[in-house]
Design goal:
- Helix content is 35%, strand content 26%.
- By secondary structure, it is of the alpha/beta class.
- The chain binds S-adenosylmethionine.
Length: 207
């Protein structure tokens, strides 16, 4: 991992994914979380303040030491115990069928093999447990999708592997989880930003 990815990208992510509007989305994706939760791509802990009181423990999966250090104050203030449970969502050091939920926000775009990560999600969830996700990905309009594919190689280089054109609903669907609900929409803003702001908010359950 180069200096840019190690020192700059985590700070850019923090700035770019903060704010009141984003917090409202974080609260929505966290609704209904209970018990022991694994969070893929914990980052600097931006979801901690959105966790409902029914969450009893959070296992944070986060490769960036800088992001983990920057989460320290949030972890200290959090109502739930947070442990760093690993560095890679593609290989979770968590026993089978032992967690109540998995949370992923703006992370399935970046994990190199999203299918592998979702296989791990299915493995660690107890039957009836759910994946809560808030992600950006492939847009439904051909012109926007074309731009996403054009820009993606540069985006991946600049933002440490972040893909623009992943079809999040298809990825989740083929993992074997059952989609319980899904909302898809462009976030408000100028048209030129559309390749970056097509969002998927949803929940999918292990049967
Ligand atoms: C765009 S950031 C999102 C951070 C946070 N989830 C949020 O909503 O603000 C993507 C995160 O995924 C993490 N990440 C990258 N590769 C990963 C992997 N293989 N497994 C788990 N997390 C990973 C990055 O370090 C980064 O913290």
């Amino acid at each position: 991992m180069g200096l840019w990815a190690k020192q700059v990208v985590p700070r850019l992510v923090e700035v770019g994914s903060g704010g009141e509007e984003m917090l409202a989305y974080r609260q929505r994706v966290c609704e209904g979380l209970t018990g022991r939760v694994v969070e893929l791509g914990f980052g600097s802990g931006a979801n901690l303040e959105a966790l409902p009181p029914e969450v009893t423990g959070l296992v944070a999966i986060e490769p960036s030491d800088l992001a983990w250090r920057r989460s320290e104050q949030r972890r200290a203030r959090a109502a739930v115990p947070v442990e760093r449970g690993g560095l890679d969502g593609q290989r979770l050091d968590v026993p089978d069928a032992t967690v109540d939920a998995v949370l992923s926000t703006l992370t399935l775009c970046t994990i190199p093999d999203a299918d592998a990560a979702l296989r791990e999600v299915v493995r660690v969830l107890r039957p009836g447990g759910a994946l809560h996700f808030l992600e950006h990905g492939l847009a439904p309009d051909d012109d926007v999708a074309r731009w996403q594919r054009r820009i993606e190689p540069v985006q991946k280089r600049v933002f440490d592997g972040c893909h623009l054109a992943r079809p999040i609903d298809e990825l989740v669907g083929r993992s074997g989880l059952v989609m319980e609900w899904l909302e898809r929409a462009y976030q408000p803003g100028p048209r030129v930003m559309r390749p970056w702001v097509y969002g998927y908010l949803g929940r999918a359950r292990r049967t």
